Amino acid sequence: MNITLCCTDTKIEPWLQGLAAALPHAHISVWQPGAPQADYAVVWAPPQQFLDEQPALRALFNIGAGVDALLKLRMPPGCQIVRIDDGGMAVQMAEYVCHAVVRHFRELDAYEGDMRAGRWGFRRPRVRSEFPVGVMGLGVLGERVARALAHFDFPVNGWSRSPKVVDGVRGFSGAEGFHDFLAASRVLVNLLPLTPDTQDIINRDTLSRLQPGGYVINVARGAHLVEEDLLALIDSGHIAGATLDVFRTEPLPVGHPFWTHPRITATPHTSARTMREESIAQITRKMAAMERGEAVAGTVDPGRGY
Ligand code: NDP
Ligand code: OXD
User: Fold this and answer.
1) Most exposed: 254, 274, 286, 304, by fewest CB within 10 Å?
2) How far apart are CA 97 and CA 39, in angstroms?
3) Domain extents for the chain?
4) pLDDT in tens, 174-202
5) How far apart are CA 148 and CA 154, in angstroms?
6) What is the pLDDT of residue 84?
7) ∠ at Cα 183 (257, 67), nearest 5°?
8) Residue 245 contacts by C-beta under 8 Å, 6 or more apart in sequence?
């Protein structure tokens, strides 16, 4: 089996060593222009030239969960795309989102400000039932997040393309369920894949449909959010603030209003990082399954866009 690695912005040596240790009989190398044909590729943001030069690839293993950038490229014919499903990311996403929800709900930023100002003051406790959380996307990550939020006794709504039943989560689905889902939610968590259907989905109209005092947590892709609409709705008072991990342009440009906005918390696309060892184990398991002719989880449907 020939495996090639083409991962930009990634320290490649540990991946090469990890894959070589897991697959001692495979021939594994880091791709360079003109390299021989491989059966499988392990990729992150590969250039088009790589795909054009590897027409015999059977599958591309993306070392992240989102494949929006990959699907913009021209694929080798018949080549499957397989993404990381969970691989240690779901628990990270659950802790990040629960932290953001609890921090907002318990007004921890305000208490921190009070302590820094030397003020010992209580706020009236907020009522959990008045903070329903809506999770857009009930896939591998969204479902884990929704379940974790339900453990804190928040009312949780979930929205997916097809109907889903998740314990402790009120399910909504499809375009026909979207407005009811928004109207039932005050905190909006985005865990959708970026597709033509979901691009710009968090916009003035969507945000206006959330319950007053809404809060936005975007951990999926920057292009889901119309940034100026969020700023306008925060200014109007309808939205109380946001925690954002992803941005239309990354790194967030110098001087962007999100850097200094008092109601926005920003982190550098770090809510759920790829875990190398778990990912290598998952990729090698899936390669073995493919060699046996079996279907593997996390295979992307290019028509659906995820
Ligand atoms: P999945 O493919 O497992 O889940 C996607 C979910 O979105 C599914 O429930 C799907 O519905 C739903 N969905 C897709 N399109 C629509 C639509 N048009 N309307 C309603 N629901 C829709 O993805 P993951 O949970 O693994 O990952 C989600 C995203 O998180 C990734 O695509 C990536 O962009 C982002 N991500 C961000 C990271 C970060 O560090 N910030 C790290 C990892 C991922 P259905 O169940 O019916 O198919
Ligand atoms: C991913 C990401 O998609 O890191 O895995 O955003």
Assistant:
1) 254
2) 38
3) 2-87+274-291, 89-266
4) 999 999 999 999 999 999 999 999 999 99
5) 10
6) 98
7) 60
8) 96, 218, 219, 266, 267, 268, 269, 270, 271
Q: Determine the distance separating the centroid of ligand 1 and the alpha carbon of 66, expressed in angstroms.
A: 8
Neighbouring C-beta atoms of residue 78, cutoff 10 Å: 10
Q: Which of 83, 104, 147, 221 is catalytic?
A: 221
Q: Which of 144, 269, 285, 292 is catalytic?
A: 269
In short, whether 134's Cβ falls inside 6 Å of ligand 1 is: no
Same CATH topology for 2-87+274-291 and 89-266: the answer is yes
Domain 89-266: CATH class, spelled out: alpha beta
Q: Which CATH superfamily is domain 2-87+274-291 in?
A: NAD(P)-binding Rossmann-like Domain (3.40.50.720)
Instruction: For residue 201, give the ligand nearest its CA.
Output: 1
**Catalytic-residue membership of 269:** yes
pLDDT in tens, 201-220: 999 999 999 999 999 999 99
Contact (CB, 8 A) for 255 and 248? no
Is the minimum distance from the CB of 206 to ligand 1 under 6 angstroms?
A: no
> Is 124 labeled as catalytic in the residue annotation?
no
Q: What is the pLDDT of residues 85-98, one digit of tens each?
A: 999 999 999 999 99
